[in-house]
Amino acid sequence: MTATSFPDAGHPVPGQEISISEFGAQRALAILAQSGKDNAGVRVFIKSGGCSGYQYGMAIDDRELEGDTIVVDRGVKLLVDRMSLPLLRGSEVDFVENMMGGGFTVHNPNATSNCGCGHSFRTDGAQSPDGEGSGGCGSH
């Protein structure tokens, strides 16, 4: 397990693997407090699928798995598995509210193509894994 901790600054630390916005941290801390899980964090991961080839996932997790990168930003523990890290490096987790409600999103500098709903993406030159990704945003 790779543990990385950064000070709770008001902005991402250069070279930081993954970060969370101030509003995202406020929402995440509230959700984590209600989870009933001691020492829980937000697991951010990538899976195949979605309209652009890859899809973001997030879950409350109190487990630290072998190979995880752990970043503490703005008081929130972010856990990323070793397979997802290259696609998430430099990303910021945020919480966005709009007319359709609200939810967590990922601002990913590695994504070269995004689905209109913001939950899936493709990296430069990458094909959709396993022929997936041709559906619209409703295919999540």
From TrEMBL:
Any Pfam family matching the protein: Fe-S_biosyn
Superkingdom, taxonomy of origin: Bacteria
Cross-referenced InterPro entries: ATAP, ATAP_core_dom, FeS_cluster_insertion_CS, HesB-like_dom_sf
A GO molecular-function annotation: 2 iron, 2 sulfur cluster binding
Coiled coil residues, start to end: none
Listed GO biological process terms: iron-sulfur cluster assembly
Domain Core: 27-118
NCBIfam families, A to Z: iron-sulfur cluster assembly accessory protein
Name of the protein described by the UniProt record: Iron-sulfur cluster assembly accessory protein
Source organism per UniProt: Deinococcus budaensis
